[in-house]
C-alpha cells in the first residue's frame, strides 16, 4: 500500500511538471496566470528562510547577536551588488561560520 501511494504521488508530480515543460503539448498559460505564478518562488523562499533567520527560542530575534540574521543581511547585500550567486553563497557562508 505504501509503495502504491509513493508511485502514485511520483506519477502525479511527474505528469504535472511534464505538462508545462514539454514544448509539443498545446498547453499555454495566460499572461495573468504567468504573472501570478512568478510570485511563487519568492514566496516559498521567504516562507523557508524567515523562521530560520528571524526566530530564536520561540521569539522574534532581530538583534546583532543573531548570526543567522547577520549572514542573511550580508547575503542580501552581496546578491544585490554583485549579482553573482556562487560568490554570494560562498562569502555569506564563510562570514556566518567565521562569526559563529
Q: Tell me, what's the shape?
A: extended
Helix/strand order, N-terminal first: HHHEEHH
Note the gap between the termini. Answer: 46 Å
| Percentage of residues in strands | under 5%
- The number of distinct β-strands equals 2
* Mean pLDDT metric: 90
> Pairing-aware structural class of the strands and helices?
mainly alpha
Helix content: over 70%
Helix run count: 5
Describe the fold and architecture.
The chain is mainly alpha-helical. The chain folds into 2 domains: 1-37, no CATH class; 39-100, no CATH class. It is built from 5 helices and 2 strands; from the N terminus they run H-H-H-E-E-H-H. It has helices spanning 2-21, 31-37, 40-54, 67-82, 85-99, and strands at residues 55-56, 59-60. The protein has a two-stranded antiparallel sheet with strand order 1-2. Strand 1 (55-56) and strand 2 form a beta hairpin. Helix 4 (67-82) packs antiparallel against helix 5 (85-99). The termini are far apart. The model has no long low-confidence stretch (mean pLDDT 90).
Strand and helix map with partners:
Layout: H1 2-21, H2 31-37, H3 40-54, E1 55-56, E2 59-60, H4 67-82, H5 85-99
Antiparallel strand pairs: 1-2
How would you concisely characterize the structure shown here?
The chain has helices at 2-21, 31-37, 40-54, 67-82, 85-99, and strands spanning 55-56, 59-60.
Descriptive labels:
two-stranded antiparallel sheet; single chain; extended; mainly alpha; 2 domains
Amino acid at each position: 500500500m505504501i509503495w502504491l501511494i509513493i508511485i502514485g504521488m511520483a506519477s502525479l508530480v511527474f505528469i504535472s511538471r511534464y505538462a508545462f515543460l514539454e514544448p509539443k503539448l498545446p498547453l499555454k498559460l495566460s499572461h495573468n496566470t504567468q504573472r501570478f505564478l512568478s510570485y511563487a518562488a519568492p514566496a516559498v523562499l521567504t516562507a523557508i528562510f524567515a523562521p530560520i533567520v528571524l526566530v530564536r527560542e520561540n521569539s522574534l530575534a532581530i538583534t546583532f547577536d543573531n548570526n543567522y540574521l547577520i549572514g542573511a543581511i550580508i547575503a542580501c547585500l552581496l546578491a544585490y551588488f554583485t549579482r553573482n550567486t556562487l560568490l554570494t553563497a560562498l562569502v555569506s557562508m564563510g562570514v556566518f561560520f567565521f562569526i559563529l
